[in-house]
Amino acid sequence: MRHCLIGAFATSAAVVFAAGTVTAQDTVNVGFILPMTGPVASVGKQVSAGAQLYVQQHGNSVAGKNIELLIRDDSGVPDVAKRIAQEFLVNDKVAILGGGLTPSALAMAPLATEAKVPEVVVISGTSIVTERSPYIVRVSFTLGQSSGILGDWAAKNGSKRTVVIQSDWAPGAEAAAVFSDHFKKGGGEILDVVKVPLANPDFAPFLQRARDLNPDTLFVFVPASQAGTFAKQFVERGLDKSGIKLIGPGDITDDNDLPYMGDQMIGTITALNYSASHNSAMNKAYVAAFKKANDGLRPNFISLGGYDGMHLIYEALKKTNGSTNGANLIEAMKGLAWESPRGPMSIDPETRDVVQNIYLRKVEKIEGELYNNEFATFEAVKDPLKEAKRVAN
After folding, report:
1. Which residues in the chain land under pLDDT 50?
2. What does residue 64 show for φ and ψ, rounded to 5 degrees?
3. What percent of the chain is helix, strand and coil (3-state, nearest 5)?
4. Which of 200, 224, 257, 82 is nearest to 141 (CA)?
5. How far apart are CA 43 and CA 172, in angstroms?
6. Contact assessment for residue 75 and residue 35, using Cβ atoms and an 8 Å cutoff
7. pLDDT score of 372
8. What is the pLDDT of residue 24?
9. Distance between CA atoms of residues 362 and 230, nearest Å
């Protein structure tokens, strides 16, 4: 297997894995569209690294077909993602698309439907994404999976008065809404929902506003790429010493940033589908291999979108005996179950959404480094918003 970097421009970088000369009929092109540059570049790089690691470990041949993994940069801009998707489908004859951030995944959805090409969502956690095309399958997470569990836990564990701080975009609104619903059903009170601009956020004034309301708990959702900035300003405003409990989806203590956040984050409670300290033999091997391949970089939950996305693609191709018919691939993906470094997971055959364990974690120092130490497991969690719709119907 050789690695070829194709293109060096922000919107056209591509990584190709190929082995020798093969005919077009023997090759399956898989096109991932990720934010490799811009404010959320760390997210794209984690997914890319996870996908590349899977190919390195499992080879680039499946069911008699050569796999070429193409990775191109949309900088997190949905119009760019749509253009690249069109180029992938028309010029590169891509058989499977990989969708990134929510706006980009949504922009790609009509093209996946029209071309009848599967779109494997590897980053977005917004519930509605899988409903935008019958050709979308998600391997990442939904924000409701973590936020609902955290709302229930907080209400049962001493939180009575909570302020919500959320990034002002669809994922932030969804995380806040699901948390608030579960927290209030448990008897808690939401004092305020504070919305922070997504672009170039300055959290300091919003943190001060939250502190002035004298809550016992602060629920926060910010994108993983902004976790470091949030942590810094959380300390600067003195909230780490205020007695206010800090909780949120795992984005706020993302493994990509946690080692650099400082001891003030110790004790922070989060809920998520993965921690780099997850105690399984498979995960320990994954973390070691990921660090070795990426200059010591610690894998985070986003990286598994790439790793498990490629696993889903490989297993679906095995079931179709190498056929790239879109409808057949989607049917092959429905109901697939496997063991991941994150734990057991599967694809809901009805919703095409990921079903997985969600873990409650506490930031602790382990062998001199900060980690999210899992202390409770909620098994086989489905997207709560889709489950609510199913029950209502």
Report:
1. 1-23
2. 80, 5
3. 40, 25, 30
4. 224
5. 16
6. yes
7. 97
8. 55
9. 18
CB 30 within 8 A of CB 67: yes
Q: What is the pLDDT of residue 3?
A: 39
pLDDT digits (tens, 9 = 90+) for 34-62: 999 998 899 999 999 999 999 999 999 99
* Sign of the four-CA dihedral 348, 34, 248, 210: negative
What are the φ/ψ torsions at residue 119 (nearest 5 degrees)?
A: -120, 110
What is the residue whose two structure tokens read 């049962």? 156
DSSP 297: P
The reported pLDDT for the residue numbered 368 is: 93
β-pairing, 136-138 with 65-73?
A: unpaired
pLDDT at 393: 79
Contacts of 69 (CB under 8 A, 6+ apart): 15, 16, 17, 30, 32, 51, 52, 55, 60, 310
E-state strands within 123-244: 136-138, 161-167, 189-196, 217-221
Place of tokens 């940069």: 73
Half-sphere exposure of 225 (CA within 13 A, CB side): 20
Question: Is the dihedral angle over the CA atoms 53, 55, 59, 63 positive or is it negative?
Answer: positive
Closest CA to 266 of 238, 245, 293: 245
Separation between Cα atoms, residue 389 and residue 142, nearest integer Å? 15
Is 304 exposed, middle or buried (CB count within 10 Å of its CB: 0-12, 13-18, 19+)?
buried
